[in-house]
């Protein structure tokens, strides 16, 4: 990847990005190991979402403060999940 950046090849950034996009499309939408991190993070976030959802579901109604805090954490992990999963599915997850 680094070999195609504008610094190394002495081309302008637009040409380098176009070349990367063309290689990306020619390779079926993803480089060999490119989206592996996206799938890994997405699965991790999904496991955390499931665990937090289960804990929130089975908490007492008396402990509203803890439910509120865990619901905030759940919302954060849902946002992280979609921010990694959608680009991964599209073949555009780049670390």
Number of helical stretches of at least 4 residues: 4
**Model regions low in confidence, pLDDT < 50 over at least 5 residues:** none
Rounded to the nearest angstrom, the radius of gyration is 20 Å
Globally, the shape reads: elongated
Helix content: over 70%
User: What structural class do helix, strand and pairing data support?
Assistant: mainly alpha
- Structure summary, number of beta strands: 0
**What is the residue-mean pLDDT, rounded to a whole number?**
78
Described by strand count, sense and barrel closure, the largest sheet is: none
Oligomer: single chain
Question: Can you tell me about this structure?
Answer:
It contains 4 helices and no strands. The chain is an all-alpha fold. 72% of the residues lie in helices and 0% in strands. The chain has helices at 6-9, 13-26, 36-58, 64-90. The model has no long low-confidence stretch (mean pLDDT 78).
Q: What key attributes describe this structure?
A:
single chain, 95 residues, mainly alpha
Describe the secondary structure blueprint for this structure.
Blueprint: H1 6-9, H2 13-26, H3 36-58, H4 64-90
Helix pairs in contact: 3-4
Q: What is the compact description of this entry?
A:
With 95 residues, this protein is an all-alpha fold.
């Amino acid at each position: 990847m680094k070999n195609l950046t504008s610094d190394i090849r002495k081309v302008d950034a637009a040409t380098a990005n176009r070349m990367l996009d063309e290689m990306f499309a020619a390779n079926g939408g993803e480089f060999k190991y490119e989206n592996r991190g996206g799938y890994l993070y997405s699965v991790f976030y999904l496991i955390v979402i499931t665990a937090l959802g289960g804990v929130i579901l089975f908490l007492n109604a008396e402990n509203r403060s803890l439910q509120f805090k865990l619901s905030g954490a759940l919302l954060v992990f849902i946002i992280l999940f979609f921010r990694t999963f959608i680009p991964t599915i599209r073949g555009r997850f780049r670390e």
